[in-house]
Structures are given as structure tokens and as C-alpha cells.
Protein 1
Amino acid sequence: MLSQLRKGSTRALIKGATRSAVPQCCAAARTAPSALRKLSTSSTRLNLASQTPRSTPLTAGKERGTPLVPAELLQVLEETIKTHGPLPVSRYMTLCLAHPTFGYYTTRKVFGSSGDFITSPEISQIFGELLAIWYVTQWAAQGASPRVRIVELGPGRGTLLSDILRTFKSLPKHSSPPVTSIHLVENSEALREEQKKKLQAGGFGDIPVSWWGSVDEVPPTNDEFTVIVAHEFFDALPIHVFENTSNGWREVMVDIADPKAIIIPGKPRKPLRLVLSPSPTPASTLYTRLSTLAEETTPPTPSPSASSALSFDTTLPPAHSPSPAPRAAASASSSSPQQQSISPTLARFARLPEGSRMEISPASWEVARGMGRLLGGERGGAGLVVDYGDAKAFGRSWRGFRKHQVVDPLSEPGHTDLTANVDFSYLAEAMGDLATSHGPLPQSTFLTSLGLQPRLAGLLRAATPERKKEIESAAKRLIDSTGMGSQYKVMAITPKRTEGAPEEECFPFLKEAAEGAAEGAEEKT
Ligand code: SAH
């Protein structure tokens, strides 16, 4: 990869690049600053620095007063519970987020000041620009395919997609990935419509676009390089929650708070509650069995220290602490077929003390494998997963988000965003036999390495005095070490290298940076 980057199609990008903060060995590292200088200096679109990202931890906000309960989806939930019994959290999440008539994403404007949360691409255009630059380095390193497709999971308003396309287009022709098709995985009809409009408004209406309901529907290809991105997608996928009790692992379920209460629309009340299933559910049985098997087949890890054991009620240490996710993926790929199908994450399941909770997202496992498969084509590809979370499992991160505040996930179903921290080590394990994962790195490290500061300086030079402050605070927010810069992580995915080929580092996911990030993550728990 590095030798390819030094010649041919990337020459113009590399010419004149600074060497200051990046290792000499990595040509991709030198690509970014030079490419950035070729971008236009149009100013940031919006100043949304005061709005709240969904990474906000559980302790950061409290719901004010008792919410009014909207009746529609609640009635569906209550009828379902009365018919089938309490619902697994995963089923509750699916109904709340994706119900075709009353679902959160299907019915409302969720983004921006009138919505419930704000995301990085909506805060500053620099975010999408820097991701685009990373893809350019990968595309060039893998042979600069003459045909490129972009696959985005959960594109929201289409802002990130549009910024990536705009950045590609603004580069000199031989350094610009020629986008020949777009594939969007989106289950909201309303958002599909917004994405279509955004593409047209950006002048990209001529590129063929297909919408799909799931990543598995996106066709494989040997004809195009695949750029794949999932920004704030995995956190919205359904999770199961399990708790270790004196009787073994039991699933946490959503039940009706008072089955005899009559629903009076508009009357404040707490209609739902979390309960523990008194007996094993199909999911808890399956995961308990898998965890026992996993423990039998996974090499023992050092027992957790007293301090980390105390943190089990909220978070769990990484399976192979402190190795970062890519090494977890590599070990999965060299294991036996039986080990491949059993996650080391689940081995920890078996060892947790009573009272511990564990959040597991089988849906995320499947999506991660789908992403890995899409990078298997002859033309190669590169993927980025950006989300809040870490390279470890979480136990109590499930939360609701409404009007820029963290709220009870059971309140106002269908009107509340539901989200959980992403376990990047689980994603890496899932795709370990299909692709190579790198990281995760904190968002601040990733964006700064790719050239956030020079890009910001460029935008500031061209901005009016009034806009300067807005642009600066938006960009700084993306890398704030106490907020988005550390809470959000970036994991990269590249095609699996062929047997015997030397291991290559993938800028900026250098070994030292990844280890530093893993150690930092450990200190926080
Ligand atoms: N990536 C965008 C939007 C994040 S919100 C941004 O960062 O601004 C999550 C997005 O994923 C929305 O577009 C939502 O409709 C979509 N989504 C959530 N769950 C989905 C699922 N199971 N299948 C397809 N799309 C889903």
C-alpha cells in the first residue's frame, strides 16, 4: 500500500505535503494535508455548537418533570405485551424506532435544533471532508479503481454523503475517486426522500442511487471500489440486555407498569417498566450457552483488578485488554471454525459477578459482517465506523434522547430516540474472518491526524469576521477532549490481506496511537 501511494495517481496529492506531525513511513499520512489545500474555502454551513450530540453520557442530563405520554405507539406496545408477555429490549427498540406508522425515525424530524440531537457532519463540513480525504488515501493505495461506489448505512439527512461527494469532486481529476454509484441503507421513507433532495441540491442527481433496507441487500461487486461508511448507525441498532442473577443470566424485559391502569391520553404517568424475566428466554439461553462454550475455547485473560471489577455495573473491560480491536479481529481469523463463530466478548459474560448487566447487539454483529463482506470484491474498498462507545462491552449504556436531553428510554415511546454505546471489539470480532479492522481511535485523534487544523485555518482565512467564531467553535467541538473528541470513536475497515502478505499499518491507525487510545479508555472505567 505504501509503495503504491508514493507513485502514480497520488503524486499530485503528495507533492508539497508537510512532514511535521506524521511518521515518515506512511505516505498516506502525507497525502491528507496536501489534499486539504485543494479543497475550496467555503465556510461552514451551520453553527450548531450549542446542540447536544447523542454521545452524552447517562449522567449528563435529567428529564424535566413527568412527560406526557403520547398514546399511539404506547397502545401498540401495550397490546403486544398483553398478547405475548414482556418484550425483550431489542423488540421494544425495533418497534419504537422503526414501526412503519409510529416509529421514531419514520415519523419525525430528528436532527437539528427542532429535532432531538445533532451529529458531527451537521456541526461542521470539516468532518465529512476529512473522512473523504481518508477514503482518497485508501482508494489510491488500493490501485485507484476507475469506478467507485459509496455505500452509506443510515445516511440521515444525507449531509455526510454530500460532503464526501463534494470533497471528491473538488480534488484534481486524477486524485478524485470517480463515483459511479451510491447505495444507501435506510429504512425511513421520509429520510430517503430527504437524502434524494440533498443529492440533487448538491449537483449529484446524475449518479445512480439505490436504497436498501439492510446491508445484506447491497449487491457484491468486482467492478467498483467500495467506500463504506456508518456514522451513528450502530448505536441505533437493537440490543438485548441481560443481568446476572443468583439463578443465572436473565433477560431484561419491557413490561406494562400497571396492567390495570386505564390509558387517559394526556395524563402524565409512567406506563412501562423494566423487569427481569423470571425464567430463561431464548436469547438468554443462547448467549449463556455460547458464553460457556466461548470460555472453554478462549485463552484465559488476567482476572480483573479490584478497581475494574467495581466498574462491572456499567462497563466491562476489553476481552483482550489492552489490545485494540484489530488484534482481536486478527486472532479470531486465525482460530478454528468453532472459535470463529464464538465471540471472545461472550467469554466475559460467563465470568461477571452477580448484578452485572451486559448489552449485546446481535443485529450489530450481522451488520458488521455485512460490511466486511462488501469489502471482499476484486476492486477492494475501505470502510469507516464512527460512533460513541469503545473497544469493550457495556452493561448500562442504554438510554433515551429527546430534545437534546438524556431521558428514560421507556418514556414517550416513538417520540424518543433510543441508543446504546457501541462495542467496537464486538464489531471487529464479527467481521474478523472477512476484513481487517483498525482502531478504534478517538475522533479527535483521527480528525487531527487527517489535518483538521490546517483545514480550519483555510476556512478561517476565507471567512467573514462574523463567521470566524462560529466556524472555529464548530470545528473545535468535533475534537473537544471532554466531549465528542473522546466519546466518539473511529474504526477503519480494509480488505483482508492475502495469506502471507506483510502486515501494513493503516494511517492514522498506527500501533502506538491505538495502544495509547486503549490505555486511555481503560483509565476511564
Ligand atoms: N448518519 C447520519 C444519521 C444518523 S441517525 C448522521 O450522522 O447524521 C441514524 C440513521 O440510521 C437514520 O438515517 C435512521 O433512519 C437510520 N436507521 C436506523 N436504524 C436503521 C435500520 N435498522 N436500518 C436502516 N436504517 C436505519
Protein 2
Amino acid sequence: MRQKLVVGNWKMHGNAADNRQLLQSLVAGYPSVGDVSVAVCVPFPYLAQVQSLLAATPVAWGAQNLSEHAQGAYTGEVSAAMLGDFGCRYVIVGHSERRALYGETDRLVAAKFVAAKAAGLVPILCVGETLAQRESGDTARVVAGQLDAVLDLAGVAAFAGAVVAYEPVWAIGTGRTASPVQAQEVHAAIRVRIADRDAWVAAGMQLLYGGSVKAQNAGEIFAQADIDGGLVGGASLVADEFLAICQAANR
Ligand code: PGA
């Protein structure tokens, strides 16, 4: 049995005062969640705050992006080792917003995945198709291509202990969720794609679904055979809602 995992992706939201409240509520409510791993991925400036508030708790944390370089003259960038200095366990890699708004290519995403692994972080690799790609029947090809770019550069062994999140772009922040059947179909295809290279790695990998996950739809999504939890954006900013999503992963 794979451990369930729910990760909050705060995106560019929050401030020091609200974060404190949210984190305190999460920690207070965590015992109700049961046997589910929980983490939050926060903006860089709040990593120190999150570290100090979560260090003595079972809730893990991480960042939403990193540089593909280890160090050097890269103004404005943040390395994997720097994230390690702030106790990060996770880092999101290749979120569709980074791909679409900041021009991150499959190649760059793969390099970031490698940088995260090299520093001992757990990359959460995001893949997913746009609405146009889904409507033209391209979902499987697009997702396979995004995966292969990372598999080819990093090697399948690097996926042991990594996380893949399937996030259909048309479901992110739109209130439109993939149906449990649609999501399961892609998750199963992702697992098979990895199993083609290494069945053991594929069987142990946590695959998350993301895209308008709410307390009300989380249960049936997380009940699918190849869905091991969620990557949650908007709903992770509201403690009760996020905790209810985490609880739904425990069934
Ligand atoms: P959403 O975002 O839950 O607000 O749709 C998910 C994500 O982009 O990670």
C-alpha cells in the first residue's frame, strides 16, 4: 500500500500574519487526519516562518520552484541546496503555471528535477494537458512526452522517492475537476509509462491529482486505484477545507 499524500500549493498567496493562523490551525487539526502525509509548498520568503512553525510537527513543507543550477551568477534564482537549508522536503517542479507563464520547457523541467534530486529534495513533477489538447485527443501523448523528458534525463531510478502530480490545465483554479474516471485513466497511464522502464519504481510511486480538488470531491478522486492523494491550490488556503481534503485521503 502506498502512503497517501496531500500537498497544499499556496501559489503567490499569503502574508506573515495569515500564514501563522493557517499553519497553527493545520497543526491543531492534524491529529484528525489520520494516516496521511501532509505538506505545504509556500512562497520562498515564508520558508523560514514555515520552518519555525512546523519543525516540531508532522506537517512537512517545501517550495514551488527552484533553479536548475547549483549556484552561480543567476540573479533572483533559488537553488535546491538553499531550500534544503530551510528544511524543505518537497519542491514542485514544472507546474503548468511555470510552463505556460514563464516558458519552462520539458528540458528545463527535467533539469530542475535532477537538481532537486541531487540535493536530496523530493520533486513533485507536474504534468498535464490543456483543454485544446484534451479535446483533440492528445492527452496521453502530451503527458507521456512530459514524463519521458524527465525519465530520459534523470533516469527511472530517480523516480524512486519522487512524486508525480497529474494536473489537467483546464481543471486548475477553474472549478472544473477531472472526473474520477478521467483522472484514474491518466494516472494509470503514467504508472504504466514508468513501469515500462521499472515496474518496482512505478508500483511504489505516489501519484497525486491536482485541479480544483475540494473537500466535496476529494473522496471519490482519492478512492481511485492509482491516485495516491492530491496537490491542492485554492482549497489549501482555508484550514478547515484543507484538513477535510486530507481526511478524505484517509479512507
Ligand atoms: P487548484 O490548483 O486546486 O486551485 O485548482 C491546483 C494547482 O495548481 O496545484
Protein 3
Amino acid sequence: MRITQESAGAAGNGEGVAGERLAADHLEIEGGERLAGEITVSGAKNAALPILCASLLTAEPLVLGNVPDLHDVRTMLTLLTRMGVKVERKGEAVTLDASQITEPAAPYELVKTMRASILVLGPLLARCGEARVSLPGGCAIGARPVDQHIKGLQKMGAEIMLTHGDIVAGVARGSRLRGETLVTDMITVTGTENLLMAATLADGVTVLANAAREPEVTDLANLLVKMGAKIEGIGTDRLVVTGVARLHGATHDVVPDRIEAGTFLCAAVATRGDITLRRVVPGTLDAVIEKLRETGANVTGGADWLRVRMDRRARAVSFRTSEYPAFPTDMQAQFMALNCIAEGASQVVETIFENRFMHVQELTRLGANIGIEGNTARISGVDRLSGAHVMATDLRASASLIVAGLTAEGRTLVDRIHHLDRGYHRIEAKLCAVGARIRRVEARQGEIA
Ligand code: EPU
């Protein structure tokens, strides 16, 4: 099995075209409604993506449940299909059969639409001994290099070259990746996932000594164990993996999405609502719940549900993003929207990504009072926001504009919601079901926002 320049650069499958069409859709929100009722949370995007890639590690079928129907998931399924993986999808159930990997390559056309495509690198190298993956570029929230993924795989014995914008990786014929102790320079979520998947089929013991502990990493590790991987230290920052010769098929449900859940919790508190979330893992939201309680919200819960009630204006709460189990960067924008209308002043410090404040300019258009200095945003709560035409710049920024728009006086129009469709399954339908007035306006043909 060889990778050719032509096949690696094969033409796109229309994702870009779909992206443009979606780019023109927008959301209209009539603010001021109190949210009340129940919402069922979907499976986690950031767990589903690595888990889909884990199918590349075995010749036997992987049967997955609770796979969210998101744009990023569809892109990943397209990518895997192009590699020769047979995919069957029925609602939230997805079966993947990678008995034949015909093309161990992730072309630019797909990688440019979704950075998580890099997650095929570790599994392909481990199973096929070779891979060609287009180098992901920076994105709106930061430069986001993948040097730690590459360094780790090199230490495990992979030969890696960067050529024509692609990462071209291989292991000497007849040999496997070898177990090593790997200490990444910083904690990286997809870096940990890539190296963990590679290590399951490596020769010997791999120690990931600075591993990410995000619940999505844990969910992937639990699936890998079901597939026959030998992993110790799951849920800690030290994963010890004893490589095995082969992995087998497994059945697994993707963990519920803590960020989708956290987004709804913020929306409920911002609108002084009363919402119960079903199908959540409350323990994965401890840091967010703690901060919501500081706003004055009443949060209660059980094994797989959470209820949040708020009957007054929120108190402003300062926080700092950090790796799990601390406050997640993926909730920073949504919680900031809540702080915009809270009583008092707050400070939000973003420590994970260097450019994750693009929502600030848009929140300001709605009347928020925010100043930025370096990685710190200073927010003075205002009595109310007023509806305006705003533009989504990335996935979580889009969600923060929705939280803000739900509380604003009058109509808010959110453009470029294709970002939202990457990570939230039918968010407007879920919010309407609990009383929000929000609708998707499909673009007229040819119109690009
Ligand atoms: N970093 C490097 N070199 C590397 C890897 C990371 O310098 O080789 C840096 C990054 O630039 C960043 C920091 O390390 O400053 C942490 O990045 P990390 O690698 O942990 O991020 P990621 O794996 O690319 C995942 C999620 C993100 C989430 C972050 C942090 C997926 C598919 N993506 O990204 O999710 O924000 O972890 O928790 O799991 C989102 O869902 O909106 C999203 C952006």
C-alpha cells in the first residue's frame, strides 16, 4: 500500500460547497424569553471524533451509539470512507468497518475544514505503518500547531517529513512503532489522543507522562480498553500503555457533551430560567457548576441529570480557563455572555488559546461593556443588551452570541452559523422547545454571508 501525491491531493467531496451554502444561513433570535423545560444532551463532538478514528486501529467492526449528527462528524465519516472504511449510519448509531484501509491519507480539502482530521495520523501509522496527512493550518482561535503529535510519534520510531504541506510518516517495513516515555511540552487533548491510539499497537510500553485528563480522552481510553488495549491510569495525567499485536471490535456509547450541556446551563441562568438537562454526566461539569452557583443559580442533579434554576439577576463571576478538571476554554465565551448582563464586574483569563476573544467585539455590538488586555477580558455588567446584527467567528463564539441574544431586548441576527453546525446538533430546535424564540433563516440561493 503506497501513498501517491495524486491520491493524497484528491479533489474535495463538496464539503466546501456545503460550507458556503451553510455560511449564508443565519439565526434570528427574539430576546427576552425565559427558558424553562427539559433538554436531552447529545453525544460529545470532541469524544466522537477521536473515537471514529479509533476504528482505523482494528480490522473488526466498531459499533457506536450516541454519535451526534454534526457537520464535523460528517466530515470525519467522509474522510474515513475515502480511506476505505465502510460506514453505516442510522441516527445516532454508527458502525465502522476498517477491515480494508485502501488509502492511508487525509487530504487538504478535508483537513482544512476540520483540524481534528489530524487524529487519523496515530492510528494509521500504528496499523498501516504509513500515513499522509495534510498539515492543519492555524484557525480563528489561534495558531494551534501539532508539533507535539509529531515529536511523540518520531520518538516512537516514525520517520516523519513535511512535504508540500503534508505530514508524510512511515515506520520501517516489517517493524512497529515502539513504546517510549513521552512528555509533551504542554497538555494537549488531541495530542494525547493521537499518541494514545498509536501506543495501543506499539511494541512495548508507552508512558504518556503529561497526558490530558479531559473526559473525552477518558472516553476514548475506555473504548480502546474494550477493543483489547492495555491502558493504566485512565483519567489521570499519566497513561501507561502496553502495546498489543492487534485490537478487536467493540460496542460503545459516546459520552454526553459537557460543553453543549454547559451552554444550555448558561442560557438558562442568563434568562432567569429553570431547565433540566437529561443524559449528562454532572461530574464532568464540576468547574462550570461551581461558577454558576457563584452567580446565585441553584444547581441540583442526579446520576445523569442536572437542573438549574435562577430567579434573579446573576452576580458577575471571574474565572480563568485551564485544562480539565479546571474551567474549560470551550465554555469561556458562553459564560462571558452571562457575565455581560450580570451585576458587577468580572475578569476572564484565557490561558489555552491566544486568540479566543473574537466574540468580544460582537458582544460589544449587543451593548456589552468589555475591555481586553492581553489574555484578560474585563467585563462590567450592563442592565440589558440590545439586539443587533452580529457575526459568528468560531464555534463557541457562536454559542455565546446565542446566549447573549436570548437575553437581549429586541431581535438579534447571527450570521455565519455554519460554525455552530460543526458542534451543536439542532441547537435552535432544542432551545425553542424550552421557550426560546429563535429560528434559522435559510439563505437565498447564491447569497453568501
Ligand atoms: N499545542 C501546541 N502544540 C501541539 C498541540 C497543542 O502548541 O502539538 C497548543 C495549542 O496551540 C493550544 C494548547 O496547546 O494553545 C492546547 O491545545 P490542545 O492540543 O489541547 O487543543 P486541541 O487538541 O487542538 C481540543 C478540542 C478543542 C478544545 C481544546 C482544549 C478537539 C477536536 N478539539 O483541541 O475544542 O478547545 O482541545 O480543550 O478535541 C471546540 O470544541 O470548540 C474546540 C476548539
